[in-house]
Write a structure and sequence with these properties.
Blueprint (H helix, E strand, L loop, with lengths): L10 H14 L12 H8 L3 H13 L3 E4 L3 E4 L3 H27 L4 H14 L1
Antiparallel strand pairs: 1-2
Helix pairs in contact: 1-3, 2-3
Length: 123
Amino acid sequence: MQFEFDQSAPLYQQIADQLAEMIFTGIFEEGEQVPSTTQLSQELHINPATVLKGMNQLVDLQLLEKRRGRGMFVKAGAHQRLVAQRKEAFYQEYVASLVAEAKKLGIEEAHLLELIKRGYDHE
């Protein structure tokens, strides 16, 4: 398991984001235990409270669940929740602005759909 950190966001947020990515990509599957805060803090050489804050964000998002005395586990349905969140983020970040720009340029819906299809075919 590899974490990469930069200065773009607080460490706890980067931990939350990278654990969520590991759930999304199947590195951690639903029902599987994730490394403990102690284990992660020792491996990453950061404060356990920082790791816990990141993990608690995922608990709040219903991606992880705490099992008393056992640790943190990927919650059932976590992958589907991440897919839904990412689809909404994709719409907000890309589709809405694409449509707005197309309207400014006078591109009709049918032509925009042709351009998108061309993009798919090009890949």
